[in-house]
Design a protein that fits this description.
- The protein has 216 residues and is mostly helical.
- A two-stranded antiparallel ribbon has the order 1-2.
- The protein is built from 8 helices and 2 strands, in the order H-E-E-H-H-H-H-H-H-H.
Length: 216
Amino acid sequence: MSWGAEFITAGAWQDPPYSPLYDWVSHLGLTGPPQTAFGQVANSALGAVMDTGWVIYGTLLIIGTFLLFDPRKGARPIRIMILAVLAGVGVSLVGIFQGSNANVGKGLIAFHAFGAQGVMLAGTIMAIAVGAGGTRIGLTRGRSIASTALGTAGLIAFPLFMTDVFTGWMWNIGLFERAVIYPIMIGHALLASSVAATQRHRATHPLAPLTARANS
């Protein structure tokens, strides 16, 4: 959902052409008039599409995690559920509170910043936590390792991104931002596809668990 909204919105941004390596990701969600925000010209023709994609993504992440994990099974699922809530709320806040000059003036930019940094930190740590217990929730060993590696890569990229922001260097900010965000999204895709594959397997092999219990 979020990737689809991003590609559609970026494709509609033509004046000047949107550069995924240079431009802020969050500028895609600006719905106001063209403006220079955070050192870059922002002119997103379909900002509402991007904002909607973020809110739906955050909502589905929280709902999906609560459907998948059972808090009664120990501390690990509880930690993952808490991280999912933080990440889901974070990405939703990015869609609700735009990184616009108007929100800077109103002080609402704090919600946008909290949401962006929250989803980056919670999302990367969640990917690592999921990878650490991946075999228990249906991930293959390879996908568990991939989830851990993706979370680690995003967690390493996060301080580099923040340094790029706070030093005012702002070199290829879109590249650094996506270096944190994309591993999180890939990790969520791995988790969702693995769970779906497990459910399909159980649906097509309903007698296997019964046979195994009978034999034991």
